[in-house]
């Protein structure tokens, strides 16, 4: 039997408001999430002992295979579906690690989609969502990788949103930025709110109007991430100074920065220039949807 295969696309936070810190220590968020063409790839060979092999250009950064969220997701799935068929996973790691792209969460969500296919489970089965929630905060939004607004700790999801096509360039300086360090630097105490603009309930369907709305909605994790990894400021300055860049922002907790452009041609031209100037960086032109 041929392995089942699924892409694990990078998650991009077009906006990221930290509403405040809860009394349980978690942070409440509101974020407009889109997904890029850049992705990892997960495959599953059915009815083999549960295992994971990691390959690809970023494999050495992914940490011990036994700690990978793919295996955590498979075990959560097995708890929700006792007797479920599992198998041997293979992850081709192409996305940078600890990069604000939700790569580990996307990998876990892809693994869950493969297990659902193997076991004849519908994509909207509540047991699949429960397994995703048990695996990690960003895994539910990655289960069905379409643009949405996510709220709370990431488990409250809007219906899919039809965004206009958004050509973009993703740039990562290859400096890992642990999410916990960024939230620690943000410095909210339990019960503290973080004032900021309200997230709109509806969004424009035209690209330039959407960019104008996004410009007024910050990523609240960007300032603390620049403290943790000051090189993020260099990435942002390089992109902001480019004539093709219409909006520049950091994704997630960093360090990946994206620039929105008006055409795929301009995204490709900007990516070529950045890659030539900084050959050690990870640079990808893409389309966000």
From TrEMBL:
Pathway: Isoprenoid biosynthesis; isopentenyl diphosphate biosynthesis via DXP pathway; isopentenyl diphosphate from 1-deoxy-D-xylulose 5-phosphate: step 3/6
Keywords, ordered alphabetically: ATP-binding, Isoprene biosynthesis, Kinase, Nucleotide-binding, Transferase
GO-annotated molecular function: 4-(cytidine 5'-diphospho)-2-C-methyl-D-erythritol kinase activity
InterPro entries, per the entry: GHMP_kinase_C_dom, GHMP_kinase_C_sf, GHMP_kinase_N_dom, IspE, Ribosomal_Su5_D2-typ_SF, Ribsml_uS5_D2-typ_fold_subgr
A Pfam match: GHMP_kinases_N
Known function: Catalyzes the phosphorylation of the position 2 hydroxy group of 4-diphosphocytidyl-2C-methyl-D-erythritol.
Entry protein name: 4-diphosphocytidyl-2-C-methyl-D-erythritol kinase
């Amino acid at each position: 039997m041929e392995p089942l295969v699924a892409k694990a696309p990078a998650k991009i936070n077009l906006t990221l408001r930290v509403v405040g810190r809860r009394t349980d220590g978690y942070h409440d968020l509101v974020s407009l999430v889109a997904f890029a063409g850049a992705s990892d790839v997960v495959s599953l060979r059915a009815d083999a002992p549960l295992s994971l092999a990691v390959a690809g250009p970023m494999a050495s950064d992914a940490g011990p295979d036994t700690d990978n969220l793919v295996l955590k997701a498979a075990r959560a799935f097995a708890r929700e579906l006792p007797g479920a068929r599992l198998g041997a996973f293979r992850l081709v790691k192409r996305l940078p690690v600890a990069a604000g792209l939700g790569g580990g969460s996307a990998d876990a969500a892809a693994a869950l989609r493969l297990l659902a296919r193997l076991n004849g489970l519908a994509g909207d089965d509540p047991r699949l969502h429960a397994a995703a929630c048990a695996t990690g905060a960003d895994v539910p939004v990655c289960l069905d990788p379409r643009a949405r607004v996510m709220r709370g700790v990431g488990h409250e999801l809007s219906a899919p949103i039809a965004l206009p096509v958004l050509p973009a360039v993703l740039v990562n300086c290859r400096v890992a930025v642990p999410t916990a360090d960024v939230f620690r630097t943000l410095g909210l105490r339990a019960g503290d709110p973080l004032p900021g603009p309200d997230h709109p309930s509806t969004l424009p369907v035209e690209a330039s109007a959407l960019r104008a709305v996004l410009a007024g909605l910050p990523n609240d994790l960007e300032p603390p991430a620049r403290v943790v990894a000051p090189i993020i400021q260099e990435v942002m300055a390089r992109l902001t100074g480019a004539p093709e860049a219409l909006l520049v922002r950091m994704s997630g907790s960093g360090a990946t920065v994206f620039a929105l452009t008006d055409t795929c041609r301009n995204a490709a031209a900007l990516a070529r220039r950045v890659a030539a100037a900084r050959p050690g960086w990870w640079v990808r032109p893409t389309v966000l949807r």
